Amino acid sequence: MLPLAVAPFAHATAAGQTLYVTGQMPTDITGVLVEGGIAAQTDQVMRNLARVTELCGGSLADVVSVRAYLMNWDDYPVFNAAYADWFPSRLPPSPFVLPSSSERSRVTSARNPRRQCSINGR
Question: Where is the composition biased (Polar residues) (predicted)?
Answer without folding.
Answer: 107-122
